[in-house]
Amino acid sequence: MSRYLLILLITALIVPLGCSSDKDAGEENIEWLFVQNAEFITLKDNVLILEGISPSTLFFSNRPERVAAHGLTSEFVTYWGDAGGTDNFMKDPPNATLSIVTKDMVEDVVLTLKNPRLDGETLQYDVTIIDGDDSVEGGPGSLFIDVVGRPATPVSAAGARRRRVRRIAY
Q: Which structural domain, as residue segments, surrounds residue 72?
């Protein structure tokens, strides 16, 4: 297990235990967001291709716990597997906003990510377009990924179940 994944897991498990915002349980929901950067991006035929993808994916939390770190992009892709049981990106694909510099302007496309494939420095996703052009090409660009379905995060369904079990147990 890499050092980055270990940091992510420790943070996801320990930080929620020591914080509080859930009014009746006195617990904090920490919302993790993810950012992936690439040198050149193509969106066509419901496939997003990020070429020259950064080897690390940035993740950070919202207020009040302001935590930021990097994890390996190769490990981020594994969140689409069966880890987390029914609460994973494969069963509950995350939404994302693609922000890409084209030759004329910066374009934003809101989409849902599915089926990631990493091959060297090229990452591909199958996507469903929610808002924006369905065909864009340019670079550089960034992909901002939301938290929905992320295994082991405090705001995931698994995190909610853990909090409910702790409330019952104590």
A: 3-159
